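Fold Annotation — chain and its backbone

Fields — amino acid sequence, structure tokens

___
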Amino acid sequence: MKSWNQKQIQQHKTAGEKLGIIKDEFRDFILEKKNVKKDLFEKDCVEFIKRSYKKHELVNDDKKEFAIVAFGKNTNQVHYFPKGKGLKLIPNTLILLDIWARLDQKMAPYADTTFMFHYGKKIPKEIQKTWEVLIKSRSNAIEYIESEIKKNQMPRGVDIDRVAHDHIGSNGYSDAIKHTIGHSLGFDSPHGKLPGINWREYSLILKNVGYTIEPGMYLKDFGMRTELDFYVNDKNEMLITTPIQKEIEII
């Protein structure tokens, strides 16, 4: 089990920064279509992401499933890829964007992040309530990792998963848990080969390796996920390497 070197850590950070830029460009892309009153489908958005990877000199090793863009009810699927054009974007629609890519360089690690948007003037109360539970779950995972490394000990994947999912369950959403809290990041796939962060993983996470924290809640009519990347350095500092979404972005 090998940690990343400093070059790979920097490559990962740069990829994470670029994914944050693509997220903003994705929002602007939707606004542009809205302003000219042009129909927009899920497939159009996926193709936009593909072009954005190339523009920012990023690559994705999977040529078919390289990004997730889900509208409305399709957000309740953990891993959704549209058939044909997919759904058409209409007012008052929740949007999930999950993007993952790496620099176009040998042995560069992936970055992987997910954002939520609402295409409409006001976020519905049920969606906002669910979001608040979700980001608290994410905060619990971060705070637990930071508390452990302050004691000079690395946390186990199972314990990180537990503190995050316990909050979701305690708020009455146990049935909405359909995904693990995180995974290590790889070099030819966003999913690395090192132990991850889930309810079956009793191994310690490693220093100087990138991981995701990505709690999700998948209900009958909609779903949502928040995802960020991090690593723990030799100084026992937890460094988050992708943007932290605090509120659902309104488009």
Notes: The chain has a mean pLDDT of 96. Helices lie at 6-35, 42-55, 125-150, 157-170.
